[in-house]
Amino acid sequence: MKKNLYLSAVLVGAAAVLTGCGPKYSIEEHGQYNLVIQQGGQTLGYSPESGIQLIEDGGYMFKDLNKNGEIDVYEDWRKTPEERAKDLAAQLSIEEIAGLMLYSAHQSIPGNPGGGHFRGSTYNDTTLEASGLQSYDLTDQQKKFLKEDNLRAVLVTSVESPEVAAKWNNNVQAFVEGLGHGIPANNSSDPRHTSRSDAEYNYGAGGTISIWPSSLGIAATFDPAVMKQFGQIASTEYRALGIATALSPQVDLATDPRWSRFSGTFGDDSDLATDMARAYCDGFQTSPKDQAIDGAWGYNSVNAMVKHWYGYGAQEGGRDSHYCYGKYAVYPGNNLEEHKKSFTEGAFKLEDGTGMASAIMPIYSILFNQDPDGNNVGGSYSKWMIQKQLREEAGFDGVACTDWNIMFDNNAVEAFGGMCWGVENVPVAERHFMILEAGVDQFGGQNDKGPVLEAYKIWCDKYGKESADERFQKSAYRLLLNVFRVGLFENPYLDPEETKATVGKPEFMQAGYEAQLKSIVMLKNHGNALPMAEKKNVYVAKRHFVRTVGMMGASGEDKWDYPVSLDLVKKYYNVVENPEEADFALVFINEPSSGAGYSVEDRNKGGNGYVPVSLQYNDYTAEFARETSVAGGDPKESFTNRSYKGKTVKTANKDDMQVVLDTKKLMGDKPVVVALSTGRPVVVSEFEAAADALLVTFTVGNQAVLDIVSGKAEPSALLPMDMPASMKVVEEQLEDVSHDMECYKDADGNTYSFAFGMNWKGVINDERVNKYK
Q: Which of 69, 253, 365, 397 sits a CA distance of 20 to 30 A from 512?
């Protein structure tokens, strides 16, 4: 027997117990939403304002999301996710599918009132403050793209607090639940767990989210179990924030040491990167058995969107393809195939039950002259990369989503904006068509369904309506499957108090902090300078903080200041201002910052604009660079040679090196301990001799550094990359090949190569080194 029940009619007080043939179930009020708790069945969450009905069948309750009075296959949680996705995909209109193919521009909570890359947000046509609304209410722009454009994939950036994120999620889900077929929002996030240097760890205090090293830092543990633990904890926190898709991991093989996105990878070794990629995806996608829905998929699962398929780590000159000047990846060593390994052998061969990563993001870059058909276009436009290699050869049938903004125009070589590499002269609608034709399903950064509908018409004209409908339904199936697998159709709602208790809870914070300790590499310990007993006198060198300009604008203030909280240091040592009174010195420095490889100033002076990316602190002249670049060419340039041979660049933070040298002069024979924070290889030859102990850190808190220095923890990490002997060897290495440059040998005779590290006993030579080196 089936019964239709209007949800608002079944409530009596805070909860009503319904009895039918079979188990009992209750409906609980939770403010923004209600829950149907079912014995032996799935818990259903719904908004009392959405107007949908409940249907009872066999003693169980189901949501009538499309309001047709029946339990459709897609509404029946007893069916498999595959059956449900197939049924719903066939029901959707082309306009609804076009909405599923959209992936929003970056959304902060509350919305950002400014313009620029993240676009302006309004509330009832005014500011949040003037509107009288709450920070968890929807912006005007969000309401439009959710309702008018049928968008359901939302990229969330910063959030005011975990509770605000939970309430905003509930508002979004309530808003879309009553629309069309009741498809819930699939909210997502870029990585959000890395530490700040000033973040002080307190086991009992908890935090806004657990704090971990960067991906490169976790790779430095050489322990995939740590990576999997991160995935398990991060997925739990993500789901508590309403996030069901992670725009990660970045499994690119970082074969060029100059590349600015090196820090987000697992390093320059394909074996290590492959194991870390697998562990990351298993951790994120696998639900515990008590939360499982279908196999290992369930309510604690987060879809992993691995990126960037493939070859991104071989950017010519280390320039990044977020910009026109970095649009080309090059393969002078004919080593493109190795760049697949972390995908095909790692993310696509999982061990814990979900099979493979459920989504993938292709590369921005043009893989220069690699396509046998001669098509030099960005990854998402390439049939050779997506349809042939990804779909057919690698057997990937999950969601493929473009990187952000590749459909839009780019206005200047140095501009951060549209990344339509190789199709600059193609109309916007046709770009969307090319992306679909290549085998991609979703458009990152696109809030407007209009160009997607135009692409549908182009497909109809070229291949016929039947083919167009089939192609759109194929993408709809893939996109919907990732929503069914994680239980959003049953219950997308969150209890803000549970969110507050889950995100950043003490045991998660402890695990993240322990990972920070395990990620710190000790490269040098001359004369057993470390560990340094507590309560000794320490001189802390000030650092020159330079105002920098990045892709999101200027940041920071130009000043000389302490790079670490002296209050924190005083918990370990007596801080003295006079080096003569100190037993040792602490110096905190960052990797050299020479820019991104392009200079408007050089262009304005008659040059081609291209300059070196330097990994040393002193001024660098590219004496050994190529006479002629491997790749080149752009509609905005009248030349194809992007060589920078003979040009000189300065590093903005040269004073970091100088502080080390000056501190050594001040300290004489007393130990100088240097902590180098980096996200890529560094030429350390300029200052290494002045450091008695040298620690390399990958986005960790200063407290973790002090725990190592004081001996509260012992260093155990290994280099996840090679450290070059000089900029000469950097210029002469091949962008697409790992381990092909001479590594630096220090004053103690140790070579800073991949898998090198030290503990208190000396050079580490354990099973990790034997396995990977």
A: 253
